[in-house]
Amino acid sequence: MNEIATDIRPEAATDEPFVVFDRVQKSYDGETLVVKDLNLAVPRGEFLTMLGPSGSGKTTCLMMLAGFETATHGEIRLAGRSINDIPPHRRGIGMVFQNYALFPHMTVGENLAFPLEVRSMGRSEREEKIRRALGMVQMEDFADRRPAQLSGGQQQRIALARALVFEPELVLMDEPLGALDKQLRETLQFEITNLAHQLGITTVYVTHDQTEALTMSDRVAVFNDGVIQQLAPPDELYERPQNSFVAQFIGENNKLPGTVETIAGDACTVRLEDGSVIDATPVNVSEPGEATLVSVRPERVEFKPEVTAGMEHTVEAEVLEFVYMGDTYRTRLRVAGDEGFVMKCRNSLDQERLSPGMRIRIGWDPRDARALDRV
Amino acid sequence: MTDAAASRGASPLDPHAAVAAVGGGVAPTGTAPLRAADGRPLKAALQRAERVNRRRAFLLVAPLLLFVLVTFLFPIGNLLKQSIWNDGFVVHENFATGTRTPIMQNLGGWFDANPPGTPANEEAFAALAADMAQLRELRAQGSVGTRINYEVPGTRSLFTKTARRADDLRPPFMEAILDVDEDWADPALWAAMRGASSPLTLNFYLAAVDLERNAQGDIVPVNENRAIYRDLFGKTLVLSLVITGATLLLGFPVAYLLATLPLAKSNLLMIFVLLPFWTSLLVRTTSWIVLLQSQGVVNDGLVAAGIIGDGSRIQMMYNQMGTVIAMTHILLPFMVLPLYSVMRPIDPSYMRAARSLGANSFTAFRRVYLPLTIPGIGAGALLVFILAVGYYITPALVGGADGQLISNLIAFHILDSLNWSLGAALASLLLFGVLILYWLYDRLVGIDNLKLG
Ligand SMILES: Nc1ncnc2c1ncn2[C@@H]1O[C@H](COP(=O)(O)OP(=O)(O)OP(=O)(O)O)[C@@H](O)[C@H]1O
Ligand SMILES: [Mg+2]
């Protein structure tokens, strides 16, 4: 990192995480809080993704970190130092925008030279760095093109190279792949994570595409309504959602409303609305009688008699629809009056094909059913 | 649309092409000519479709084309012709009957027979006397005198006086005519008559840049106290540049504000920018007079506030300053609108990107925002400059003696002195100047970079 243009330097004597949001609040209009009491710590080198529905305050958080918005309350610290009063250009943070924001009147080379020129870097050093940055994104041959002469994916690569060329330690990306098609997105997801890990930079990435979040990140912060709903590594997020918003937002999910019947340690039973009883793990419930929403992943639902036989509780279900999806079968069931219950089975040689109208009994390991808050 | 459909019909899916391909066992392209669905050759079908489109497009613009032709191109052509063609000395037109009679034929013959610079001899005066008699008969001496008066001031009376006594002239004519008025001996007058005897002349252009022909027919600068046009062109240029600069300085921040405000607010502000368009030009100009004259609101206010003494009121009206102030105000929207239309779509993320890359706000503005507004600056400046160069009414009202622009003089020649040819020459020079400017702009910035709205 070039010392001239940034006020952020690695502090020797702090073991505080690299980026810290400390009780940050943000309001644009003085009436509603867009970000409510945000506490977040990102260690050096981590790839953290902010995931959440539109309007949940992700961009706002990123803009506060970059310095384009000021926190209404609270403090943001970078390398142990409060950056509330440091203007954006002295924060030394690389940034990739959704629309790339490549300067249209400059060539690719000039775009990359820009951050180096404002740091008054010498010509030869500049060229060396530009060459290296373009090499990182495999775009060496495009230095003389204008952004308008590049495809969307190429522009995104250049934007990435530009954000990295001045060797920032922290890079922010706001839905950088939002405008690309699926295949390109997947390639670039891979490239971005690789690059981030190779260079050891800390990355804060914003997306509302959950697959992207799950595949790229070390940890994911799920935002809703200006609050982090859960902050966890992808597998934990998927398998152990802390509340029904996360369960619903990440991946496909079956939700069964009911009331807690008994609760004992890390097991409970829940009575569904039609009177049947199921097993679950209590997450957000503590007492019998509490209303709850039980979340079960479609691929964890079992229906084969030889498996369900050993289970304490099973529920009756009626097959409504059977869809062949190639690698899986997707079966829609009516369970406890709900017609949207989905079960996914692997497509193997011995897999039984159900047909609409059949009545089966389904069940699951109690650890796969999570009794969450009822919203 | 139609040709898109036609070319789609030409794809290899075309049944005829497919048959040819199967039958001949070769690729369909390049062998048989492609045919449209109805069997006609594709090229002909395409041309036909395009012809219909072209005709439709032409019919749509035809009324405007006609209008422009009649009211704009024809007058401009006429103007250009007037500036190099004046037959007031060789043809007399009787407006009552519409008949055109050749005049000054004898003198014309003498000019043809003798090279420029030949002093007028008895033969020449004889020809003049004969022509004078004809003028008297036709009562054309006034208009002929006026024609020569354009070039040698104070000679109109010479013609009227001499024509009145044309019948009394007896040989030797030289003596007789000089007896009527000895000014006839002036070689400049003869040079002017020689010039005027051929209707096709560049003399008006020469006059428009303060040049004239001397008795020998050489081009020389006019007498210093008659040289006004070059200075006036220069002043027009300088004042227009000043006005353009002032509108840019004042308009840029406004356009920036308009472009960055939320739409609802910027629409409101835009009304204020456009407000000048809604009031009459005369009202606006006169209100500047009310404000800025030496007994006007501004001066009164300054005096009342004790900033200036009553005796030292600032002259802001009836001079160049008045012209600059009033025209800057009037032309401001023409700068703001193109700037706004260029700035509005500039994504704020460019500036953010620049700042995140380490540029302070000034550098970000200078290296990223400003270059992106160049098309707007160019368009606005060109528009304002061209309008300012040709502006007439405001300088006429508030310019006083020293704030007059070239267009005021053009108006003078067209309306008062009735020297249309000189007016046309001045106006043509202005037109050429603007065209050259346009060409320069195209070379430097590129016309396709122009964004007017
Ligand atoms: N400049 C602003 N002025 C006022 N309100 C704003 C501004 N920017 C964002 N908001 C509001 O703040 C809330 C959060 O916006 P933000 O852009 O952070 O959402 P987001 O999570 O990035 O959404 P998306 O996924 O759609 O980008 C929204 O309700 C939005 O309307
Ligand atoms: Mg956003």
UniProtKB/TrEMBL annotation, chain A:
- Describe its assembly: The complex is composed of two ATP-binding proteins (PotA), two transmembrane proteins (PotB and PotC) and a solute-binding protein (PotD).
Report TM segments. Answer: none
**Which source organism?**
Hasllibacter halocynthiae
For this protein, what is the EC number? 7.6.2.11
The Gene Ontology CC terms held by the record are: ATP-binding cassette (ABC) transporter complex
Keyword Transferase tagged: no
Q: Keywords for this entry?
A: ATP-binding, Cell membrane, Membrane, Nucleotide-binding, Translocase, Transport
**InterPro entries, A to Z:** AAA+_ATPase, ABC_SmlMolc_Importer, ABC_transporter-like_ATP-bd, ABC_transporter-like_CS, Mo/tungstate-bd_C_term_dom, P-loop_NTPase, PotA-like, Transp-assoc_OB_typ2
Residue ranges annotated as coiled coil are none
The Swiss-Prot or TrEMBL record annotates one GO molecular function as:
ATP binding
- The protein's gene is named potA
Where is the ABC transporter domain positioned along the sequence?
Answer: 19-250
What SUPFAM superfamilies does the entry give?
A: MOP-like, P-loop containing nucleoside triphosphate hydrolases
Q: Does the keyword Nucleus apply?
A: no
**Gene3D superfamilies documented for this protein:** 2.40.50.100, P-loop containing nucleotide triphosphate hydrolases
- Family stated for the protein in its record: Belongs to the ABC transporter superfamily. Spermidine/putrescine importer (TC 3.A.1.11.1) family.
Swiss-Prot/TrEMBL catalytic activity = ATP + H2O + polyamine-[polyamine-binding protein]Side 1 = ADP + phosphate + polyamineSide 2 + [polyamine-binding protein]Side 1
Give the top-level enzyme category: translocase
Q: Which Pfam families match?
A: ABC_tran (PF00005), TOBE_2 (PF08402)
| Functional description taken from the UniProt entry | Part of the ABC transporter complex PotABCD involved in spermidine/putrescine import. Responsible for energy coupling to the transport system.
The name on file for this protein is Spermidine/putrescine import ATP-binding protein PotA
Automatic annotation (TrEMBL), chain B:
Q: Which GO terms describe its cellular component?
A: plasma membrane
Give the residue spans that cross the bilayer. Answer: 57-76, 237-261, 268-291, 321-342, 368-393, 420-441
Q: Which residues form the ABC transmembrane type-1 domain?
A: 233-441
PROSITE patterns (UniProt xref): ABC_TM1
Q: Per UniProt, what is the membrane topology?
A: Multi-pass membrane protein
CDD domains hit by this protein: TM_PBP2 (cd06261)
Task: Read off the PANTHER family from this record.
Answer: ABC TRANSPORTER PERMEASE PROTEIN, INNER MEMBRANE ABC TRANSPORTER PERMEASE PROTEIN YDCU-RELATED-RELATED
Protein family membership? Belongs to the binding-protein-dependent transport system permease family. CysTW subfamily.
Mind telling me what this protein is named?
Putative spermidine/putrescine transport system permease protein
- The organism named in the record is Hasllibacter halocynthiae
The organism's taxonomic lineage, starting at the top: Bacteria, Pseudomonadati, Pseudomonadota, Alphaproteobacteria, Rhodobacterales
